[in-house]
Please model this.
Amino acid sequence: MINKQHVIVVMPAYNAARTLEQTVQAIDRRVVDDVIVVDDCSSDETAARARALGLFIHRHDHNLGYGGNQKSCYRLALQRGADIVVMVHPDYQYDPRLVPAMAYMIVSGLYDTVLGSRILCGGTLAGGMPLYKYVANRFLTAIQNLLIGQKLSEYHTGFRAFSRKVLETLPLEENSNDFIFDNQMLCQIVAFKFRIGELSCPTRYFAEASSINFRRSMKYGLGVLHSTLQLALHQRGWRNERMFGEAGRKLLLAVPAEPSP
Model:
């Protein structure tokens, strides 16, 4: 807790049994009130490891995808009273020791969203990011900044913190359940004029770290261009995109009860 604001870490997990404990141990529990792990129907012992560590665990009966996993993460965090939610990948690629700094940036009232930027740290390639991913990151970021009027160092980090208001406001149910969810969400944050801060964040690339392959990276890149163009047209009033408007579907915090048989 920081200044009476509850801080919850959410972990969208898939086959993260080997790195989960190391990631959790690096989280400062003097600041973080709760850790939620959503297991997206892993084939390993992710759920069992989370229970053994005393974490709140929710397991999907079938794989919903990275975006679908995040929707569950944020829904559960709001249900459990979060004022600030920090998404931490359980593969130890991003450094969880930065969670308090990201949370404090939101508590300060200066930012609504904080991104852990791999680019600002200056050692991205040395940390093991493949060259083609680095080049694609820089190219897509430049295009996005140009089209939607921002000055972010990158749009593609998976280490993010949000205020409760952001998660309650954004029409997240309009977004994909696939990897492009991350970029769609960030475009929505821009569309709703929330304030974005960035923090330098070193990363590690190793065998257990989650990463999408070249084919899926290409699909993601095309999705980034599409969602950015959608936002650019919406900003200029040339199209009315539901995912960037008040009428878009927001997260349902309570799942309706099924009718009795």
Confidence is low (pLDDT under 50) at residues 255-261.
